Structures are given as structure tokens and as C-alpha cells.
């Protein structure tokens, strides 16, 4: 959806308004491990984390230019999740099954992007028909990673190599008595080695892959096509909650779920899902949910580190999903004499999110709101 703000209106954005109104719910933490400890979960075995891979890939610093540089940056980002959680799931968009509206929005965004989105002719692959030699010859990956007709093969190769590194790291941990798993959803495990155009099996086949086959089998969703990574974040949150409630042995002792992204539309998605959970509750063990929104560096906060001073490179704005949902509901129903039903609370959140959408998102905006 992409909730939008512009110019001097940033202080009226959804996240900014919620942070101002519900200050006691929002915190700032340096690492995901800090978030886990702040939530009262000391051991990583009690935590799972779902990360937005699209954000991770597109926020690689400009100074990092070649394939191995991309692999290292993305691997390091996932490693922060591995340090915090026993299970890390990284999700990606699947361009072939996104909605028409999303496709049109992406095309419009590409046209507006300064300098265009395509590579300079002859210097980078212009479409999906290239192999490892061409990819290794690219001196600056950034234009290629912005160019939608060609970038998915490069995405796949980056993540294929990242997964190999994750598997190696987990094997080392296992020898030291630690467990863990990393899953990646929405990539073709063949990477750049997928057959080229015109050859057999050249069509890209994104799927769920990972270091733990039992976990992959449990969480795979071949019958449910999800094109947008934002919706995958919510999907995995819901499925993992169900497994925890059912007491599935692979999720024994899990108490905390971290959703890691930068997109404010995930706030709306999580509020809708929180209202749905109250209306249609799962019986059994419950899992706490915390949203972690990656921010650029700035003045250090004391929420997670009492001794920290000076500047930092980056941090997370975090909030407890259920607590924020409850405070919003309280304010919406404060004038009512009768307590609302669970269905009424769900409708109220739906109307609130509809207002956020009409006030400005990637697909619509009503002037004056």
C-alpha cells in the first residue's frame, strides 16, 4: 500500500502521529537482540524474526558495488536477525504474481526515479538473459538492482550465496551447541545458474528455501501465491502464531515474534491483523508481536543501552503490536457508553486504516485529507 507523506507534512505521517500520541509504546533499540531482551525474552530460542528482504537488498550502501559486496552486506543484515532469533525468515516480492495496481504503481515510481531505472546500454544486462560471467563483470550492481526486467536473476544469486553462508555459520554454531534456521521466501534457488532464455526450465520459479528442511516443509505455501513482501510478513506472523498456539514441537518455547521492515504500511497491516485475532482468537499458547522499523542513524536513545552516548549508524523504532492496538481502540471508543464487541473493534480499525489510505498511499489520495 505504501502510506505516503510529502514535504513538510512528514510530521503528520501515520508513524509520526502514532509515535507522538502513544509515546509510552514506542522505544528505540540498537539491535534486534536488544529488542528481544527489552521484550523480556532472554534466550534467542524463544524468538522468531521475519525480515523484509526487498528493503535489505535496496538499502545496500552506494559504496558497495560488486556481487560479493552485496552478498556480504545482506548476510550481515541477516546475521543480526540470527543473533536475536532461533528462526529467521526473509521475504521477497514475487513480481509475476503482484496485483495489476501494484505493477502500475511500480512502473510509475520507476519513471519518477532520478536518472531512470534502467542500466547504461552495454554496461549491464538489460533483461533476464545473462549468466555468471556477465554478472561478475558488472562493476556497479546498483543500476542493475534497480532495473526490474533484469534484477531478479541477480537477486536470486545474491540470496543463493547468502543462504550458503548462513548454512555454514549455523553448522559452526551447531558444533558449539546452538541451534537455528534461516528461510528465504520468494527466490529461485538456482540463482544465476538458472537456464537462460530459450533453454529448458528457464522460467523463474520462486519458492521457499532454507537451512532446515522440516521447517521449510512446515511453512511452505505453494497453494497460496503472495506477490508482495509486506503481505508475506503478515502471513508468516499469522502462521507461526497458529503453530505456537497448536503447540507444534518446532515452535516449542517461542514467545516473541519480530517483524522487521521500514514500510509504514506494515503498521496498518499489523493493526488489521491484531483486530482480526481478537475477533477470531486462536486457542492455546500466545505469542507476543513486536514491530521493528529500521531507521537511519541519529542521536542515541537510552531505551536499550543506559551507557550509550553520541551518534549511531542506525537503530530500530519498535513497538508492541497488541499494546498499540489496544491504545488506539481505547481512544476510538472512549465516548461510547457500552463496551464494543470484538466485531465492532475490528470494523473500527478497518475504518481507521481506510482513512489512512485515503489520506495518501501509493494507490490513491483524496486532496484535503
Quick summary of this structure?
This protein has 369 residues and is an alpha/beta fold.
Low-pLDDT segments: none
Give the structural class.
alpha/beta
Q: What would you call the shape?
A: globular
Strand order across the largest sheet: 1-8-7-6-2-3-4-5
**What do the pLDDT scores average to?**
89
Radius of gyration: 21 Å
Order of helices and strands: HEHEHHEHHHHEEHHEHEEHH
Protein model, in words:
This protein is α/β, with parallel strands linked by helices and 369 residues long. Helix content is 44%, strand content 13%. It has 13 helices and eight strands. An eight-stranded mixed β-sheet has the order 1-8-7-6-2-3-4-5, sandwiched between helices. Helix 11 links the parallel strand 6 and strand 7 (288-296). Helix 10 (229-246) packs parallel to helix 11 (265-279) and helix 11 (265-279) packs across helix 12. It is globular and about 70 Å long. The mean pLDDT is 89.
What's the topology here?
Elements: H1 14-21, E1 26-29, H2 32-38, E2 47-52, H3 53-58, H4 67-84, E3 87-91, H5 100-112, H6 132-137, H7 141-146, H8 148-175, E4 181-187, E5 207-210, H9 213-219, H10 229-246, E6 256-261, H11 265-279, E7 288-296, E8 314-320, H12 321-333, H13 342-358
Helix pairs in contact: 2-4, 4-8, 10-11, 11-12, 11-13
Keywords:
8 strands, 369 residues, 8-stranded mixed sheet, alpha/beta
Amino acid at each position: 500500500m505504501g502510506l505516503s507523506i510529502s514535504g513538510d507534512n512528514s510530521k503528520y505521517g501515520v508513524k509520526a502521529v502514532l509515535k507522538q500520541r502513544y509515546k509510552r509504546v514506542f522505544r528505540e533499540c540498537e539491535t534486534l537482540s536488544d529488542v528481544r531482551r527489552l521484550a523480556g525474552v532472554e534466550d534467542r530460542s524463544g524468538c522468531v524474526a521475519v525480515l523484509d528482504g526487498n528493503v535489505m537488498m535496496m538499502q545496500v550502501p552506494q559504496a558497495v558495488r560488486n556481487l560479493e559486496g552485496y552478498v556480504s552486506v545482506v548476510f550481515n543484515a541477516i546475521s543480526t536477525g540470527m543473533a536475536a532469533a532461533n528462526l529467521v525468515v526473509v521475504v521477497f516480492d514475487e513480481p509475476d504474481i503482484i496485483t495489476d495496481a501494484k505493477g502500475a504503481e511500480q512502473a510509475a515510481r520507476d519513471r519518477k526515479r532520478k536518472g531512470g531505472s534502467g542500466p547504461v546500454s552495454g554496461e549491464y544486462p538489460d533483461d533476464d538473459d545473462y549468466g555468471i560471467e556477465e554478472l561478475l563483470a558488472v562493476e556497479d550492481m546498483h543500476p542493475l538492482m534497480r532495473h526490474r526486467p533484469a534484477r531478479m536473476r541477480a537477486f536470486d544469486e545474491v540470496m543463493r550465496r547468502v543462504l550458503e553462508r548462513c548454512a555454514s555459520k549455523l553448522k559452526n554454531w551447531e558444533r558449539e551447541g546452538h541451534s537455528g534456521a534461516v528461510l528465504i521466501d520468494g527466490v529461485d534457488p538456482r540463482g544465476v545458474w538458472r537456464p537462460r532464455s530459450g533453454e529448458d526450465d528457464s522460467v523463474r520459479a520462486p519458492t521457499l528455501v532454507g537451512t532446515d528442511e522440516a521447517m521449510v516443509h512446515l511453512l511452505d505455501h505453494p497453494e497460496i501465491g503472495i506477490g508482495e513482501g509486506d503481505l508475506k510478513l503478515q502471513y508468516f506472523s499469522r502462521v507461526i502464531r497458529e503453530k505456537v498456539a497448536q503447540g507444534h514441537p518446532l515452535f516449542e518455547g517461542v514467545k516473541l515474534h519480530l517483524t522487521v521492515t521500514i514500510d509504514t504500511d506494515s503498521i496498518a497491516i499489523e493493526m488489521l491483523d491484531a483486530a482480526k485475532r481478537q475477533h477470531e482468537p486462536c486457542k492455546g499458547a500466545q505469542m507476543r508481536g513486536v514491530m521493528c522499523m529500521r531507521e537511519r542513524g541519529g542521536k542515541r536513545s537510552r531505551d536499550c543501552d543506559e551507557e550509550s552516548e553520541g551518534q549511531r549508524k542506525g537503530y530500530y523504532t519498535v513497538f508492541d503490536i497488541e499494546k498499540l492496538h489496544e491504545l488506539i481502540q481505547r481512544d476510538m471508543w472512549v465516548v461510547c457508553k457500552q463496551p464494543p464487541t470484538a466485531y465492532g473493534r475490528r470494523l473500527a480499525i478497518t475504518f481507521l486504516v481506510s482513512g489512512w489510505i485515503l489520506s495518501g498511499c501509493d494507490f490513491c489520495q483524496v486532496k484535503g485529507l
